[in-house]
Amino acid sequence: MQPTMTYEKHALLPEVATQASARAGAGLSWKAKLALAALGALGWFRLDARLEQGRIIKHGHHHNSDWGSFPHTDDPFHFLPCTNATVPPGLDEAHPLEAWMRLYDPNPQHWSRGNGSRSLYLCGWLDVPLDYTNTSDKRVARLAVTKLQHAPERSKRTMIVEPGGPGGSGTSLVWRKAELFAQKYTDDTFDVLGWDPRGVNVSQPSISCFPYDADRDRWNLLTTRFHRESEPREAMLKADAMNQAILEACKREYGDVAGMLTTAFVARDLDEIRKALGEEVVNGYFISYGTGIGQTYVNMFPHAVGRLMLDGTEYVRDQRLIGGFGWAALDNITAAFHDGFLGECVDAGPDHCKLAQPLPGSTSLPTKSDLIKAMDGLFGRLVERPIPAHTEESGPMIISYTQLVSLIYGALYNPLGWDALAAAMHDLLQGNTSMVARMVDSWEYNPALPVAKHSSDELGMLVICSDQYDSPLPPDYDVETNGEGWYLDLWKSMVEQSEIGGNGRFLDVLPCRHWNATFGAPKEVYRGDLDHDLSHPVLLIAEAYDPATPLRNGRRLLREMGKNARLIAHHGYGHSSRDTSTCTDTIMREYMLHGTVPEEQETQCKADAKPYRYTEAKSSAQLVEEWKISMAETQMLRGKTSRRRRV
């Protein structure tokens, strides 16, 4: 997978990009220069070679006839028009605003604009206290912020967006979706702002406990083996030892910062963003783990709640419990695989879904039961022996049980990618490995390009484990072995509930076994109730076949929030409401535009179309390309690029 630095992407020759990044970084610290050079070499930024080398702009105000001067007077975000050089200054910069202004490009032709002639992408940053519990600690977290602003005069309302994770990049979500969200939900009357939460991506400190991304791959095949493919105790203890090593490395690298990444601190950061915007309430669209941030925020700051949509709803009480981030996600996964991926394929028929064509040794069309049996047989063969394969990019490889199950679980997040995976599974059952090989042939980094240190993959485990650090231990938890038997039983029960999702979800929570011994208590977690009287009701969206945040979560949250919330029960496939429903979209639009909520506590909405029938048939190459796009969006929601799965 590509790295997760998330400003605008352009294809450049690496040597040109690197030279441009060096010019853009004149006067920056060596760390900032290294980051810019690496990003340029990786082709993620169109760094303009016409920037003047060494130009110093002190509190620069450069005038443009439409947009005025930048940064605007008393702008707490120091917004500049986004180019591919506008990366926030490093925390070690003695004069961060001057370093930032060196990256300002006064030529409006170089600015990143939206499709509307007057809309502009603005890049900035906001310093917030690193430790909200200690006013004498002057350290800061520097939050990267990107905003789509529709006109030189900002709108009266901003829709703040957050994609999930933990570890999802809000700046990336703005680049991908801000124009769609603004038009779809607000008629372009709201500006759209996203931020990288503390520890994530371009925000600083950015948590990366490996020196280079390449180092993660070295251990992945050894430490990520699923229950059915391994001797469970041996496999768990290898993964456990690696987790302990990672947490200890994080402590050496970041010290007490690891205890300042909790969802409660992120909620406090969100309120600082609200205040910096000068708005009385938070209006926003939060997805997946972002709904956990939203639930925490509205109960810590109930007076500052505006029109807030929580889509793909967690129930944050689960995240306070040992292993809760894992076991609370399993309800719908088997049904999503059997009824959705396989069952909808049969219903669509062989003209729409290649996997609905006759199976090997048969001349009749398969039933859903036939496909379930065929997939179980395939899994069993892979447990016994991986399938050899080959890709032009990477040469010889194998397709293992763990890889294939991970591939399927990732696909359940987004039904728009099912056409490609179904075609690949059909080919694999016929003995053709080419499509599946291309899908599993992914890296934490691109081995053909220079390596760089910039992925914040470890952030997720630090947030998950700190949020559950004080969970009461179960009665059968053996403290002397640090719960070895209990975790083995948990893994078995999770896989029995969901073969497709149970393994990855277990590996997400296993690192927490070593949190308390490594870090102790975090600075702050929210342990209050979720039923505060809010200044405005929130809108919850929970999905019937969601493989990460079950509909049950939304209903439990609704019962606790009572009159302070309304719920859309979205009957469709995938994680969050991406399986488009005019019913759901209309309610969300009326809510965001006018603050209108349904009279009923729960409203039923159905998706407009069924999987495999969204579009016309496509070639294998088109299917693989669409697969890559859908998986890129899924990875954004999970907040990392590794094969481990998270909300």
TrEMBL record:
Ranges of residues in domain Peptidase S33 tripeptidyl aminopeptidase-like C-terminal: 505-605
The keyword Amino-acid biosynthesis appears for this protein: no
Gene3D superfamilies: alpha/beta hydrolase (3.40.50.1820)
Domain annotation AB hydrolase-1: ranges: 159-314
Keyword Nucleus part of the UniProt annotation: no
A GO molecular-function descriptor: peptidase activity
Family, per entry: Belongs to the peptidase S33 family.
Official protein name in the record: Protease
Species the sequence originates in: Pseudozyma antarctica (Yeast)
Lineage of source species: Eukaryota, Fungi, Dikarya, Basidiomycota, Ustilaginomycotina
